[in-house]
UniProtKB/TrEMBL annotation:
Coiled coil: none annotated. This is TonB-dependent receptor. It is found in: Cell outer membrane. Residues 276-354 form the TonB-dependent receptor plug domain. Residues 1-22 form the signal peptide. Belongs to the TonB-dependent receptor family.
Length: 920
């Protein structure tokens, strides 16, 4: 054979079709290579054959032909290959791969519009296979893939392309990656298993992949039959040597959201935390704008918001108490978690019901091809997670469990009252994924956690979380996809009191919610990506009940009537790319809430404070009858403008409603905090937040810097009267106050993404203020002036560093500093009617001592042999290296007529730990 020729050159050589050779030939090919068969054809005919020899490798031929036309022989030899042939007028046979040679160019080839991809339904010249110069002008490497081979005629005009997209580094499927054919205005996204399907026109289509955290790719797909193609994509961020917050290398400057951070579970393993336990939610508190009321606090205060203003989701279902062991550990198994998306600025319109933030937590997708697992053993807990393929490549199951053996920790604490205490917890988690077909998939998640502890010898406290989530995904076509989501969540606690006299009792509380949500995605065109849907959530709250344990106990039974409420919403968001510099995310959510019967609601006299003496009427509502309706529009708008290639400006505005509140007169979330629905007398909380920030990357994305400011105004915030009784109170509205709040601050963040030394530094200056004003003195606090909230901490500084000595050995440090939180102190005493009383300062006028802590950890990776049963990891850490006696709270006692202040601390000494982890 004569060798290879460039196809484009051939197009200019042959301007007319070759005539069919009418001579017949006979051949007998017995298990010879295709290359040898073609050589015999060339030797026995007057034709010269031109072909790339590598196209023929590995193909064997066993054929017999008797008096057969040359064209029929070639058609049969190449029938099961992707090779076509062309016979020219001068007896040359040109063999091409995938496409056919045309004797003339299409009429539109030299026209005004350059053809990148064509649809045979819209042109008489057949499918287009001419590559655009625009692709080669980009910096993206373009690969050409051929599927099937071109025929002379077709019974269909489009073919199905399917396959998977996987991470080139670890071969893991990449979910939610977009594939777009810009010239046709069509596209799709991968499912949880990285699978995709597209219907493409005959000929050339240019496919682009795009997703946060991965390099964009561009691929020329020349398709002439149904087929498959698997993409392999590269990550485009540099790891922070096991400490980095995983994200797209330029997402901090590229997307439109303000105050958004994504934390990967695997990257948290080197950060030294208490007792060596991994904790993504504790890692979040090292970021600007996220803090806690104190060591051991179970909630989060985000941008000056209360702990009940955070929506914490696990696979779309709400987690009401995300903590174990007095807030020291998170309630979610870290090995079962994939990542956490934290929204504290521009909250997407699909989320609602909370004012301050959303913690969107996703569990791992179980592997569908091989059995995997991870176990760990620490000083307090033991963890295990396994991933089990059920149907290979289609479905898998993840199971996780964790338990504690923590009584020894309580006995080692400095607080004498805790030495004889006990505490334990466990949690279990499961997730099942099933790919029904290329357009349909279903996933189900379940979670249960239980805590039990006894601080005193006569009381046993217990609380639990339970949730279930079911999600069905369906792709209608390349532009439309949707999800149907059903979730149920429950939180409850109980107190078992067993005293020395006949006052033993059982006390319980419970809240349930069930939500149904439909979420749709529509890729309108290159500029508009629309997300819309509708949701409905039904609340059921048992405010509490108490009953005697035995027939001899003198406790009177009491049960507070059940509360019910329905919260619904419709939402739509358009991600609108105006030009290369300006991106807008425009969202609108309309929320409405109805308090439902059966219920009895009290009506109070206008112009008087709410109390038992000002009740003028009682309203009775039947089951499912509307008691009171609230709601309104919520605007969610954010924008990004590029000031340079690696420098952007972002701004956002959000207004939000919250129809559920916590009742607590402590500074932290405790297991016996109760949730209260808005009703006839208690209004929903509302907030408006503005944010503005600048974002800059340096040294090829090695360094990331951001400076973001926010201002938030709130109203109808729920607080309590001095000495309020919040538990088992049938007229709770007489014990609480609703007032205004404002918060503002400036957040600075710098992160180093590469090198042996890496990590981040975060600093926040912020204020959180509350105003409880009324015309009635008993409903007014601090004379109606703004005063610091319980979690107002102006200065918050955190530094996380990791130094990599070798690939196996590294050292990590974690340093935190926070302004002490506000507290109310006694400032004197007075005598009235023969009795002595304590005089207290204005609420939250003083502060406890500032908080600071240094942690150090040594990380030892197992060897990195390619063939081994599993990978081990040791973490040796010391929590609170400096032995700082950080105050958790300050309280006052009377001793011989003298008021004395006492300080309570959680960890007042260094706490060493060693944890072993094995992954297989």
């Amino acid at each position: 054979m004569k060798g290879s020729l460039n196809i484009l050159a051939l197009l200019s050589l042959f301007l007319v079709y070759g005539q069919e050779n009418a001579k017949n030939f006979s051949f007998d090919f017995q298990n010879i290579s295709l290359e040898e068969a073609l050589e015999q054809v060339q030797a026995s005919t007057s034709h010269s054959i031109y072909v790339a020899n590598e196209w023929l490798q590995g193909k064997k031929v066993t054929k017999q032909y008797s008096n057969t036309l040359l064209e029929d022989i070639l058609s049969d030899l190449l029938a099961n290959t992707q090779l076509n042939f062309f016979i020219s007028a001068d007896d040359r046979i040109i063999i091409t791969q995938n496409n056919r040679i045309y004797p003339e160019l299409p009429e539109t080839y030299f026209g005004e519009t350059e053809i990148i991809s064509g649809d045979p339904e819209e042109t008489d010249t057949g499918p287009n296979i001419f590559l655009s110069d625009k692709a080669s002008e980009t910096n993206i490497k373009v690969e050409t893939v051929r599927i099937g081979k071109e025929q002379k005629s077709y019974s269909q005009k489009r073919f199905k392309l399917s396959g998977t997209i996987k991470n080139a580094a670890n071969n893991e499927p990449v979910a939610n990656m977009a594939l777009i054919v810009r010239a046709l205005g069509i596209g799709t996204t991968t499912d949880n298993l990285g699978r995709y399907t597209l219907n493409l026109p005959i000929g050339l289509s240019v496919l682009e992949t795009s997703s946060l955290g991965y390099e964009n790719t561009m691929t020329n797909i020349i398709i002439y039959n149904n087929g498959t193609y698997d993409f392999s994509v590269e990550e485009n961020y540099e790891l922070l040597d096991e400490v980095v917050l995983k994200a797209n290398a330029i997402s901090n400057i590229d997307d439109a959201t303000t105050g958004n951070t994504k934390i990967g579970a695997e990257e948290s393993k080197n950060i030294p935390l208490v007792l060596g336990e991994r904790d993504l939610l504790k890692v979040a508190t090292t970021l600007p704008g996220v803090t806690t009321a104190g060591e051991g606090a179970a909630g989060f205060n985000v941008r000056g918001g209360k702990t009940d203003q955070n929506l914490i989701l696990l696979d779309n279902a709400v987690v009401y108490n995300p903590s174990h062991f007095f807030g020291i550990f998170q309630a979610l198994n870290p090995f079962a978690i994939s990542d956490v998306n934290i929204y504290k600025g521009a909250i997407p319109a699909q989320f609602g019901g909370r004012l301050s933030s959303v913690f969107d937590i996703s569990t791992k997708n179980p592997d569908t091809e091989k059995f995997k697992g991870e176990v760990s053993l620490g000083p307090v807990t033991a963890n295990a997670v396994v991933e089990i393929p059920i149907i290979k490549t289609k479905s898998g199951l993840m199971l996780g469990g964790r338990g504690a053996y923590s009584d020894w920790v309580l006995r080692s604490l400095k607080d004498v009252s805790l030495k004889n205490s006990s505490a334990n917890f466990y949690d279990v988690m499961m997730k099942y994924n099933h790919q029904i077909d290329e357009n349909n998939s279903v996933s189900a998640s379940g979670y249960y956690s239980k805590d039990a502890f006894s601080i005193t010898s006569d009381s046993l406290y217990g609380y639990s979380n339970r949730l279930f989530s079911l999600k069905y995904d369906h792709k209608f076509n390349e532009k439309n996809a949707g999800s149907l989501i059903l979730t149920n969540s429950q939180y409850k606690f109980d107190i078992d009191f067993d005293g020395s006299v006949n006052d033993n009792f059982l006390q319980q509380y419970q809240i349930d919610e069930t939500e149904l949500k439909v979420r749709m995605k529509y890729l309108f065109n290159e500029q508009h990506n629309i997300d819309y849907g509708i949701s409905g959530k039904l609340y059921g709250v048992l405010p509490g009940q108490i009953e005697p344990k035995g027939s001899q106990d003198i406790i009177l039974p009491l049960s507070i009537p059940k509360e019910r409420g329905l919260e619904s919403a419709i939402f739509v968001t358009d991600s609108y790319t105006i030009n290369k510099r300006l991106l807008l995310d425009i969202g609108l959510r309309y929320s409405f809430y109805t308090a439902l019967g059966a219920s009895t609601q009290r009506v109070y006299e206008d112009g008087s404070p709410k109390s038992a003496g000002t009740v003028i009427d009682t309203l009775t509502f039947d089951k499912n009858e509307a008691i009171k309706t609230y709601g309104g529009p919520e605007v969610r708008v954010s924008a990004r403008y590029f000031l340079g290639e690696d420098f952007s400006l972002k701004a956002s505005y959000n207004n939000t409603y919250q129809f559920i509140h916590t009742l607590s007169n402590t500074t932290t979330v405790s297991p016996i905090d109760t949730w209260k629905l808005s009703d006839y007398n208690i209004k929903p909380q509302q907030a408006n937040q503005w944010a503005l920030g600048i974002y800059k990357n340096l040294d090829n994305n090695t360094y990331e810097l951001s400076l973001e400011g926010f201002y938030k105004r709130q109203k109808n915030l729920l607080d309590f009267k001095t000495g309020a009784k919040l538990i088992l109170n049938e007229s709770i509205e007489t014990e609480v106050l609703q007032g205004k709040g404002k918060a503002y601050g400036l957040e600075f963040f710098i992160r180093k993404n590469a090198g042996k030394l890496n990590g981040w530094l975060g600093y926040t200056y912020s204020r959180s203020l509350l105003k409880l004003d009324s015309e009635f003195g008993e409903e007014r606090v601090n004379d109606g002036r703004y005063f610091p909230s319980n979690f107002d901490k102006p200065h918050d500084f955190s530094l996380v560093l990791n130094y990599k000595f070798t690939k196996r050995y590294s050292i990590s440090t974690n340093f935190l500093y926070q302004t002490g939180r506000p507290v109310t102190f006694p400032v004197g005493n007075y005598t009235f009617d023969g009795a002595e009383y304590v005089l207290y300062s204005d609420r939250n006028r003083y502060r406890i001592s500032d908080y600071y802590r240094l942690d150090i950890g040594l990380n030892i990776e197992g060897n990195h042999k390619a063939k081994k049963a599993g990978h081990s990891f040791w973490n040796i850490s010391v929590y609170n290296v400096l032995g700082r006696n950080n105050p958790y709270s300050v309280f006052f006692v009377s001793d011989s007529g003298e008021i004395k202040a006492l300080q309570s601390s959680i960890f007042a000494i260094p706490v060493p730990s060693i944890t072993y982890n094995f992954k297989f």
